[in-house]
């Protein structure tokens, strides 16, 4: 697969990954290399990276705990302090090896340490390969509120080695699939149609589907790097999906949902709202619901859960001028941004999901 240029980043795939990384390190005169991992990627992925690194530059490993619950400023402070203790300077390189938590947090740490050091993302989950590591968004959560603090600043390189997917459990693969499904719904009916019967897909198809998904996101973020217009379409399903994810994360009586699991619910709700407000065809709406529930199952959202979920909508980062802005669909591949939705329609959407 050919490498892809996205704004100031170059995205390399599989056999090109480590050759490109070694060349970049050789040409850039870095003083030290810091590799950020969690306990899972330390064990399963770091050995592969170190085996392929060809450099005499000092390498330091920094490990943080895995999980969205650790994607916080406090974790950043720990990493910043470690960088300082290990004499990192402005010519240091940070390599982030992990899923979306690692690439989001590691990118933010790199962009803010000494007002910015170079960084490289090596996503190891399907979700981070097709979404989190591409586009230059970095950041951390504020309490249980997702991605409230961050900057947009691209990594030097993104290295997508799909061999890392062999380390993932099934639920993590499904979580990443949700973002690929979203890419089809907002941009390309032909791409969407490839996912409507997963039984026809083999693992050999996965690399090509990942590649297409990265191109879809690359095209969007290249046209709108600061999320002033088109890039908002990538938030389809995320307005309610993020609120649901946040609510379940912060409620000890609820099972924590993976990002993709929550976004799937958000997309079903957004498809219903679209059918009510933007004339999205109801047969396609119903097909989306049936397909997604067949892949992900149904999550029980009780009536008493809905009000606190709606309260969380006010923190959505797409909001402006006091309005909660949704991304809806007029047709598959034809999204509409900045849609204001009455609460009664949102409540009807939850009833539709549960019906």
Instruction: Spell the H/E element sequence.
Output: EEHEHHEHEHEHEEEHHHHHHHEEH
Shape: globular
How are strands sequenced across the largest beta sheet? 1-2-9-6-5-3-4
The assigned structural class equals: alpha/beta
Q: Kindly report how far apart the N and C termini lie.
A: 43 Å
Average predicted confidence as pLDDT: 95
Helix content: 40-55%
CATH architecture of the largest domain: Up-down Bundle
- The fold-level CATH name of the largest domain is Dehydroquinate synthase-like, alpha domain
Q: Which consecutive residue ranges, at least 5 long each, have pLDDT under 50?
A: none
- What is the tally of beta strands? 11
CATH class categorisation of the largest domain:
Mainly Alpha
Major sheet summary line:
7 strands, mixed
Describe the 3D structure.
With 355 residues, the protein is an alpha/beta fold. It is 49% helix and 16% strand. The protein contains 14 helices and eleven strands. A seven-stranded mixed β-sheet has the order 1-2-9-6-5-3-4. Helix 11 (259-277) packs antiparallel against helix 12. The longest helix has 21 residues, at 203-223.
Describe this protein with a few key phrases.
355 residues; alpha/beta; Dehydroquinate synthase-like, alpha domain; 14 helices; 11 strands; globular; DHQ_synth_AroB
